[in-house]
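Thread: Newbie trying to understand structure tokens

Hi all, I'm a second-year student working on a class project, and my supervisor (Dr. K.) asked me to get a predicted structure for one chain before our next meeting. I've only ever worked with sequences, so writing a 3D structure as a token string is new to me. If someone could post the tokens and maybe explain what I'm looking at, I'd be very grateful. Here's the chain:
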Amino acid sequence: MKIFHNAYRLKEINTNEELTDAMELHFIEIPKLRKLDNTEGNIRHARSMDSIYTES
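---
Reply by user tm_fold:
Sure, no problem. This is what the structure looks like when written as tokens:
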């Protein structure tokens, strides 16, 4: 399965200390999400995310 969702946290470069666990950046790659098999239950999610993505 292709990974379509990535999450990142902020860390200090030299010590690798995490700044906070209260903030994360999430990226959802719509084209990869669309390609998933419908049996995985993600097509509905892809369509709802696509409507958010295309409204701006």
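A couple of things are worth pointing out once you decode it. The chain has one domain: 5-54. Residues 42 and 48 are 10 Å apart (CA to CA). Feel free to ask follow-ups in this thread.
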